Amino acid sequence: MILIGARLVRLSSEQFFESTLNPDTRRSGGMHYTSIANIHKVIDPLFLDALKKEFQAIKAITLERQQRQKLDAFQDKLASLNFFDPACGSGNFLTESYVSLRRLENEVITFREKGQGTLGDIANPIKVDIHQFYGIEINDFAVSVATTALWIAEQQMLQETQKLVSFNVKPLPLKAYHNIHEGNALRTDWSEVITPEKLDYIIIRPL
User: Fold this and answer.
1) Which of 5, 52, 122, 179 places its Cα 20 to 30 Å from the Cα of 28?
2) Which is it for strands 133-137 and 83-85: parallel, antiparallel or unpaired?
3) Which pTM value belongs to this model?
């Protein structure tokens, strides 16, 4: 992702990170670009498909009061989930997971307002947050890239939500975000990154 003027352009953080490395470094570190399509082959069956199915079931509820209660509880559920990538590289899996979760949240927001679009100034309807996403990475530069990618994704999704409803949230300054830890995942105690009680999903790439 890059910032051009006031417009956010989303590029793969892995593509950016790998472009700075020579082939020998990429090969020795097992650093390989993963396409968005292949990322979804991991995250869709891991959590996204089930969440989308749950949302469709809520949309089918005919009693409006019950449906609204379910929508509110479902959005709270989205905001309570915590994700951990113990070999996050430049954060592409975490970033795409965040964006996917936020886009599902945007569907909830739109459906709750029955597609009426901008409704005037309201309280911030966003509950999903980048602080739900954790990672470990051995390369210090990749840690910085992953952190920056999630920051930019947050601003991008803020803009997408603001197209649906009008609310006042200052995009800057950026909130402190220290969930990407520099270290060797084979030697780091994962519970020092995220407590097991908080953890919902671990992102593991197939070999």
Assistant:
1) 179
2) parallel
3) 0.83
